[in-house]
Amino acid sequence: MQSTKKIRIGISSCLLGNKVRFDGGHKKDNWLVNILGEYVEYVPVCPEVEIGLPIPRETLRLVGDPDNPRLVTTKTYQDMTPRMKEYSAKRVNELEKENLCGFVFKRASPSSGMERVKVYKDVDPSTVKDTGAPSQKGIGIFARAFMEHFPLLPVEEEGRLGDAGLRENFIERIFAMQRWRELLDQPFSLHNLLEFHTRHKLLIMSHSVVHYRSMGKLIAHGKEIDPKELIQQYQTEFLTALKMKATVKKHTNVLQHIAGYFKKVLSADEKQEFQEVIKQYHSQLVPLIVPLTLCNHYVRKYDEKYLRSQWYLNPHPIELKLRNHV
């Protein structure tokens, strides 16, 4: 069963419908607010407003070196870089106390875009009309500070969440992050860590077989490692593994692995049906929910206790319908 406690997620404030944009408007995302909002508690952040800029205000842009750009106003060319960097360093430290399980950034924002933000040539637009095509290799100043401070925390942009695969991967990760935080809230025991790992084995495998194997070795030698070091190593491996995108090929491998648990109980017709459905998924004729529905049916029918405990089969609420589209 999933925890009934809402997951705390950071988010660019305008995506919630808050009128904090430069023009006094917002960029409300209905899916984030009305669908995912049933399961998460948002912590809104608007760097521009929080550094004291008014609403409405002059627009901002990144200029100069994409790896270390400056943040300037587009008409009067005021340099906001020191103020934004000072704010960002302070804000990410404050956000440590929020126990966040992820963050959703505003696409293309010079403060909050997580990738492909436009970076213009470092010239005063009031004196030079044609500055040429901007580079699209920038990262928003606050987003960069956040991701450097929380390198393993799940992050996404609202624009990228329109991709079904990226959306499913992000939501899967924030629910896994919540389960990990709940484990950390308990007194440490190797037994609890082993149980956590066991229940996540197939989920980890669907992202990275390499990490699946290395984490198994880590747990096997758990008694030989200092608890704090073990927790840190496991956390890094676990979150790094889930950061790697699951693919049709990886899911197919896991589905075949699951099929092995039923080889002694399924009838010949059931085995054939199972393999046909897996093949249909592998050929991308049906979404992932189709073979998983059959998996869950067999788990209940034959009371397969190990698979019943696997988060892979139900990593997030079915009401989100995320695996209907991947």
TrEMBL record:
InterPro entries assigned to the protein according to its UniProt record, in alphabetical order: 2-thiour_desulf, DUF1722, UCP037004
One Pfam family per UniProt: DUF1722
Domain named DUF1722: residues: 201-317
Descriptive protein name: DUF1722 domain-containing protein
